Amino acid sequence: MKSQYWADQIAEKLIKSRKKNKFTIASGITPSGTIHFGNFREIITTDLVGRALKDAGAKVRFIYSWDDFDRFRKIPKNMPKQNILKKNLGIPVIQVPNVFETKHKSYAEYLEAELEDSVKLVGIYPEFINQGKKYPKCVYSNGIKTAFRNRDIIRKILDKYRKEPLSKNWYPGYVYCEKCLSDNTKILDYDHKFSISYSCKCGKKNTFDFRKKGLVKLFWKADWPMRWAYEKVDFEPGGKDHSTPGSSFTVGKEIVELFDWVAPDYVMYDFINMKGGTGKMSSSAGNVQSLKDVLKFYIPELARYTFAGRTSKTEIFYPMDEGIFKHYDDFYYTERVAFGNENVSKKEQTQQERVYRMSVIDKVPKKMPIQPSFKHCVELINIYGVVSKALSSTGVKTKQDQDRYSDVLECAKNWINKFATDRYKFTLNKQAPKLKLTINQRSGIKDLVKILSNDLSEEQLYSKFPNIMAANNLNAKTFFPVIYQILISKNAGPRLAPFILAIGGTKVKKLLNSIK
Predict the structure, then answer these.
(1) DSSP string, 318-375
(2) pLDDT the model gives residue 96
């Protein structure tokens, strides 16, 4: 059956239309603030298409561009040492000093390093390209010349989408001052080859050859198509902001022809927001979670599944509230279908196999991993406090299962500390609290203690509760809250049968017997 998975369809179209078997796919961003989980959508969208191409037998070069030669134009609210950052507005991001207590050489390098380390954890290994190194080395001098010599054509393309036309003295780029490093400059003259003259507000004036001094930077709408041509890019996705009339991609499709290349195949991706958050993630506003942050609560496969399980055009609200339980369960469903452990149609089987293939870090494992319920892991962490003790209580043996269980337990622990409401937090009592109990409640507790002497399964234990209540003239409202009060000093908690088994019969009996 032909795959209907969206990335496979893009890959098939690329192979047919470009009539070749080696492709360059690309992503990139200006590292001016936290590279957040919304930004990650572009990276993984590119990676998913890359996987689809490789699965179809093609060769793939995945490049990721750090646009760190862009000007530092706005200070994100969540960044430290705002006064220092303010003094560096208008210079290349790569030149902004490191305001973090790390050994990184610059502000940009710190932000770049976090993402470069994080994407490895989800199985993504792009070739990173720093424009803050490429531009100063004069790598794009011919591309800059092409853009500047065709500035009237580029201006007319841009003016089609502008209310106010650009000045006839407009250039598709700007100069960074040699003296103050800022872009507070004005281009005075250009010889239609490689010589350019400029003046700066700081008083500096000069004429230079941009084959020898890398001070010229193209504006984004000319820069993007120039680098498409330079790197021979075949596919690159873009967000909504790049997809509207007059946007970067719209004009880029025309401008790239000046550089003797065709626009890459393109897919728009929608926004992603944390469930419970407010509005679109914004680095400048500081209301963001990075991939590194998300991986504290999502195992790597779930982080990938968040995107792999939906088309790129779908807006995503990823849960950090109690919806995280279902999010794990949805991924587990896909995993079970992929391993043939669910009775589904052939179409569903094919689709979920592809989603799972795109969600795993490397190759699909030969044996289906264990699927620890996130909710149950939350309960285990509440009971045992630390991951190692909680893992020991599960009795899992194989390394694959221990690794999966340990990862989910670690995520559960982090979730309890950061997002869980009081409903999902409790501490197991060391001794039963003082309670006023009826004779029937006391006798019901004794009957439960007797039941716990037997080696019962969850289903068997659950089936005993109605008998205990009936024998002691109790109901759910007079029996269950008492047990929870003895165990965790709350009137309610996790489902009682699995909860008792998770704690262990010996501990529960000890607490129940300590009631006075």
Answers:
(1) EE-STTHHHHHHHHHHHHHHHTT-S---HHHHHHHHHHHHHHSSSSPPSSPPP---HH
(2) 97
Over residues 70-87, the mean pLDDT reads 94
Q: How far apart are the C-alpha atoms of 41 and 29, rounded to whole Å?
A: 12
User: What tokens appear for 3 in the block?
Assistant: 């795959």
User: Is 397's pLDDT higher than 50?
Assistant: yes
* Integer Cα distance of 55 and 14 in angstroms: 13
Taking residues 110-125, what's their average pLDDT? Answer: 97
pLDDT of the residue at 210: 98
Q: Where are the alpha helices (DSSP H) in 219-345?
A: 220-231, 248-255, 291-294, 300-308, 324-338
Distance CA 308, CA 284 (A): 27
- The pair of three-digit structure tokens given for residue 307, joined into one six-digit string: 């995107």
Q: Which two tokens stand for residue 322?
A: 């109690």
- Distance, in Å, from the CA atom of 292 to the CA atom of 308, rounded to the nearest integer, reads 18
Rounded distance, CA 380 to CA 468, Å? 26
Ramachandran angles phi, psi of 107, nearest 5°: -55, -45
pLDDT value for 247: 87
Q: Which structure tokens are listed for 122?
A: 């989800």
C-beta atoms surrounding 291 within 10 Å: 24
Domains contained in the chain, CATH given: 374-424 (no CATH), 439-513 (1.10.10.350)
* 456 — pLDDT class (breaks 50, 70, 90): confident
What sign has the CA pseudo-torsion 73, 78, 82, 88?
negative
